[in-house]
Amino acid sequence: MMHITSKVSSKLVLITLSFLGINAGLMGQSISAGLDFTMMVCENEAVSTCGNNTNGQLGNGANVTSYTPVVVGFNLTDVIAVSAGGEHSLALKSDGTLKAWGRNSFGELGTNGSDYIEENPLNVIGLTNVISISAGYNASIALTADGNIWTWGINDYGQLGQGNNLDLAVPTMVSGMSNVRQISMQAQHTLILKSDSTVWSTGRNNNGQLGHGNIVSTNTFAQVVGLDSVKIVAISANRFHSLILTNDGYVLSFGYNSSGQLGSGNTIVSAIPDTVIELQDVIQISEGSDFSMALKSDSTVWMWGRNNSGQLGNGETTTSPNTVPTQVIGLSQVVEISAGDRHCIAKKADGSNWVWGSAASGTLGSGNSTNSLVPIEITPFCGSITSLEETSESNFSIFPNPTSGIVNIRVNDLQIEGQIFIYNMLGQEVLNSAMSSNYSSLDLSYLPKGVYYTIFQLNGSFLQKKLVLN
């Protein structure tokens, strides 16, 4: 917790950002589906995990696979976002620091070591003021508040964007890539979205997944082609294809398409972005290995691509390509989504988590390995902390939390001018209110129900806290 005294003279900025998913907001996500395990941020800001644990990726101090949710150990709290990779995990804390655990064969944990397994959270070296994270299969990327990106881990295809193919055991800033707004890394390529709405990519490109109009891999970021006439608000990379979300609610796709994961109505590979058919009003995107996922503004979820394990959530399995989006059965009021290798997780407005698809190694947390063709509820195990409420001694408090509309914000010993900004998931400002004292009360009842995050910023440093509107 940052200590704040009454002698501060700088202007305080208090920014509240709507947070609806890894590709929709600046910070990351409160749920994440990895290769064969699942992560959830609890209401008490602990982390719960389930699934394959042979490399310690569940973070509970063991390497035994768990078919029911467990809590990440070492008293890990104050977590606001998580990202599940192939065999390692990342957790972003409210003070802008980063924790990592799991497999570290290529330095993907960022702890200045390699070729070992870590079963408990460790500090990622040299990173502060982190606002967004993404874990790839054996690599990681982080976005800091100054708009710079940092990468580490395996770099066999240039996915780190460092201009070479050398693995990195500590986070290293990517030169020449400033003003970055969003990041997405999976498998062997990486996407970034800059503040000018341009999208850049690096890494493996054997199926056109970089969107450069060719199939030439690269170890430096290059701009995705064909986007000059559209404004981009979200990105998603996974395995051999990529998704892009436009500000008017359309989804563009490019890369491999053998299972119809591009949603183009066919199975033709594309090295340039093209529009997903029969889909609009989308506010969030995610993708699995060979399938894709979209959350619409009416809080329904739509999917397309491979469905061998029920990952499309439409009540059936098939080996045939699914080239057109279909709605997930029995799922409404969704505020956040994440797709893994062959399974999915979604968070509803009431805070409940729902999973479907492959249950191999316990990914669904259902107590068994039986696949689910439709969403089923998963209950995280969150340890002994039971409340999000801040104590009266806290320097930065948000209460009540969760709230149905009225929220109070308190900064102790504050004697400087402040401001409160609220933005939606497209980065549009929906509230701008002066904070002339150390206490402010806001009516947020007009905002959609869901998960939000508050950033407390002062002199380039900040704290972040989750806010639930129900």
What's this entry about, in short?
The chain has 470 residues and is mainly β. It contains no helices and 36 strands. The strands form 9 sheets. Strands 33-32-1-35-36 form a 5-stranded mixed sheet, with no helix packed on it. Strands 2-3-4-5 form a 4-stranded antiparallel sheet, with no helix packed on it. The chain has a 4-stranded antiparallel sheet with strand order 6-7-8-9, with no helix packed on it.
Q: What features would you describe in this structure?
A:
The chain has 470 residues and is mostly beta strands. 0% of the residues lie in helices and 45% in strands. The chain contains no helices and 36 strands. The chain has strands spanning 13-18, 31-33, 37-41, 47-51, 66-71, 79-84, 88-93, 98-103, 117-123, 130-135, 139-144, 149-153, 168-173, 180-186, 189-194, 199-203, 218-223, 232-238, 241-246, 251-255, 270-275, 282-287, 291-296, 301-305, 326-327, 334-339, 343-348, 353-357, 372-378, 396-399, 406-411, 418-423, 429-435, 439-443, 450-458, 461-469. The chain has a five-stranded mixed sheet with strand order 33-32-1-35-36, with no helix packed on it. Strands 2-3-4-5 form a four-stranded antiparallel sheet, with no helix packed on it. Strands 6-7-8-9 form a four-stranded antiparallel sheet, with no helix packed on it. 55% of the residues are buried. The model is unreliable at 1-27 and 385-394 (pLDDT under 50).
